Amino acid sequence: MDNSTDNHQELKNIVNDGDINRNHDWETKINFEKGNVDSGFVASGSVEKDMAPVPGNSIRRSSSRPQLDLSRAAIQGNFEDRNPTILLPNQSDDISHLALDIGGSLIKLVYFSRRENQLVNDSRRRVINERLGVKNGTRRSYPVLGGRLHFVKFETTKINECLDFIYSKQLHRGGVDSQNWESQNTKTQTTVIKATGGGAFKFAELFKERLGISIEKEDEMACLVAGANFLLKAIRHEAFTHIEGQKEFVQIDSNDLFPYLLVNIGSGVSIIKVDGDGVFQRVSGTNVGGGTYWGLGKMLTKCKSFDELLELSQKGDNRTIDMLVGDIYGGMDYSKIGLSATTIASSFGKTISESKELEDYRPEDISLSLLRMISYNIGQIAYLNALRFGLKRIFFGGFFIRGHSYTMDTISFAVHFWSKGQAQAMFLRHEGFLGALGAFMSYEKHGLDDLMVHQLVERFPMGAPYMGGNVHGPPLGDLNEKISWMEKFILKGTAITAPIPMTPPGTTGLGGFDVPSSRGDILRPDASKLNVGVLHLVPSLEVFPLLADPRTYEPNTIDLSDHGELEYWLTVLSEHMQDLVDKAVASEGGTDDAKRRGDAFARAFSAHLARLMEEPAAYGKLGLANLLELREECLREFHFHDVYRSIKQRENEASLAVLPDLLLELDLMDEETRLLMLIEGVLAANIFDWGSRACVDLYHKGTIIEIYRMSRNKMTRPWRVDNFDDFKDRMLGTPELNTRKYKRALLFVDNSGADVILGMLPLAREFLRRGTEVVLVANSLPALNDVTAVELPDIIAEAAKHCDILRGAAEAGGLLVDAMNNFQDNPKERVLSVPLMVVENGCGSPCIDLRQVSSELAAAAKEADLIILEGIGRALHTNFNAKFQCDALKLAMVKNQRIAEKLIQGNIYDCVCRFEPAN
Fold first, then answer.
1. Which residues contact residue 9 at a Cβ distance below 8 angstroms, ignoring those fewer than 6 apart?
2. 336 — pLDDT class (breaks 50, 70, 90)
3. Which of 428, 468, 516, 710 has its CA 20 to 30 A from that of 599?
């Protein structure tokens, strides 16, 4: 039996003794951060002492058997499985602490940090999962570790800063966040670290001398390809095109990824044809690359850094140095062969005929001309190789690009020009880290195998580095350190200004590489850089199985690529911020600590908004749903986990008090009238939305019940979108149409209080009355005043005290396992009851992306034949245009004038009742 089998059997034996909590909601996180790290972390001289281990120590190799830390171990999925996946949240192992890509110009560092997650012991969830048949996910032959991957870079000339950084975070000893590294005798062992790049050989002895690290060299090309394949498969909007300053994200089908050409531009250039995972060949390359640009630029301009040289190019005019076609032909085009007057005929060619010294030329012009010369030729060589192998997909990566607009525009032009538009250059958001990521994946048990794109959720926490790859200060530790850093570096109330105007298409003369005059000197050197967020690996996420076509599904209804639309919504969020901060602080008792965290949230979110206004594509493809989720994640980052908790409790109590009378009133109606009243009730109750400024202002004019009644009284048909009659015919039937009852209905609920209790719960009761199973789908995490899956069972338990239908269905669905044990019900009634169940949706946002839902929801959907999406976030902001394999009903009151005009050509408080039969 091998070591891994021994470990697994050892854990099963312990599990069988009953020592392990068997319920665990697992989440592994992957964090991509890149940044210039300041040299002021720890002085070099202060860390040399005791850095190296005692001579003669043994070496722990990545493939050796680890010492297992079994504390808080748990089984994932079904305990009865023969070989269950066993999760070790506190396991400290050397499989993924640190990986390096040491190039001639830059060092890229990838390090792993663990993150402990809370175990979940929820009997309700277990009962529902058993009923729905939720099974364990992908089997692994080794433990799954929780944590994050951090990406940082240093200039190779500042390698001592890299060593100081590694030491300051104890990465060579397992990390300062590890609870167990000291107890595992790591002080008496030498750690083996994976590394790639030429520097892995050149600096091996230095790493061993300073840190006691033994470098294990990995093949550079294999690492580049492995890193690129992972990113292109796992990240939905990893690739993008860049033409005349305009970014457009490209969706890559992982099933149609190969073959492609990978052009890695580091110090030199390698051109690799990739035919599959681990199947590739280097087909070409050039010694004219990033090192050439940096070396010549340093000689000619006296710049002190690569970034400084790039910054100079922003202000340059290459026409003072380059010879253009127009210079040869008297300012005219050479139209016969398709060359415009502004096309570069000879880089640096104009200097031949001028009697000038080097000092007579502007460094800015030299930098730009040099950048254009190298970028243009790389693009041309890449295309010629693509033509050679019949490839139309070319990906460019490497730290030469750095998100730099002119660089990407020039390469894109070259590919477009020589291919006559048949091929396009594509770039990667996580450029530069391909080799380092590949080195990390070369560990025997890195844990990233077989990931699907729907299992990765990218988020953007505030902290160093937070923008454009720049780190402002030392590595951040706890929340207090983060807040202190923000108070120093992030201005309070960061101004939200209009976006930098893009150059209108066709005015830059890309053939001649003219300077886009509309950007000029106002473009910051990092304005085009794309932020790299935190990738949360969530194995339990799945694609919603009832989407008509997951490949073409787009959740966002509002496209924020329109600058006017983006400016409007950023302004709305900015204006709502102070009210949100006040509620956040109040939700934590108004303490000084809460006030400080509230101030930090305001700084952080303002900085996010300012960044997006400056560069809308900074965080990838941006929709309104992404923007709203960013706000919720920012609140959670500063430990505001449920800002509207007290408001929700108050509104729930008020609504539950009047629910019995409402149900009695409904029961006295005939079924057609009752169905109309139920839909009206859902629409009227949907007015209670603390995310709407108009609704918040309305709440000051009356109590929750008064506002609900006012809203009901204003319900007059026809509504702005009114398919109620179609829905009624499907529910009740007609003389011409015999309908069957729905088997299972999924009701996506929205707000707490009247919305769910007086709106959606009575509608769910109607389905139960008709023999339809009902699954209420609610948020996994709080967002605004939305009800959560954790809160719903208690609400239902209270409602069930006054309703036999709800009580029987809730018991049948396992919702009353904990909340109610004292009912003396008729056993026959319980047997006849169809179940009412609650599942979480897998997100914590006012909107929902159905490409990433919980395994519970995916399982529940497999037998569902009706979906009801309720609320402006889930039915309008997202999914308004979504098509499904089953019937769908979309219900919402529109609480924003702009949305009303844009989507339904109506006005605020207009209603949507959109019924769509199975697609």
1. 1
2. confident
3. 468
